[in-house]
Amino acid sequence: MAAQPKRGGVSLPERRSAAKPESNILARITSSPIVSRGKQAACDAAFVSKKLLRSTGKAAWIAGTTFLILAVPLIIEMDREQQLNELELQQTSLLGAPPTASVSK
């Protein structure tokens, strides 16, 4: 069986021969040392950015969990203390006793 060309589809244009390197300016530009150094700098910048984002995310996770474990219970307890003080003040005012102010000497 001989291989028959496929019907339909898209045919790609023929490649130009590399006999004239001056005619293919794009190939000369992409193979220049300036472009290769630019590509290397872009890859290095992407690598550093990825590492920085990863470490920043870890630091944010540590700070967030530390806040939840240490600061939130403290805030809740301080709120309860404030409510208890307000309740005691309200009860003493209802009973007719004057509110006591703390005396500092």
UniProtKB/TrEMBL annotation:
| Keyword hit for Heme | no
The listed locations are:
Mitochondrion outer membrane
InterPro entries according to UniProt: Tom22, Tom22_pln
User: Mind telling me which CDD domains this protein's record contains?
Assistant: TOM22 (cd22884)
- Tell me where the transmembrane regions lie: 59-76
Cellular component annotations (GO), alphabetically ordered: mitochondrial outer membrane
Protein keywords: Membrane, Mitochondrion, Mitochondrion outer membrane, Protein transport, Receptor, Translocation, Transmembrane, Transmembrane helix, Transport
Q: How does it sit in the membrane?
A: Single-pass membrane protein
**Origin superkingdom:** Eukaryota
Which Gene Ontology terms describe the biological processes this protein takes part in? intracellular protein transport
Query: What Pfam families does this protein map onto?
Result: Tom22
Instruction: List the residue ranges of the region (Disordered).
Output: 1-23
What family does this chain come from, according to its entry? Belongs to the Tom22 family.
Protein name in UniProt: Mitochondrial import receptor subunit TOM9-2-like
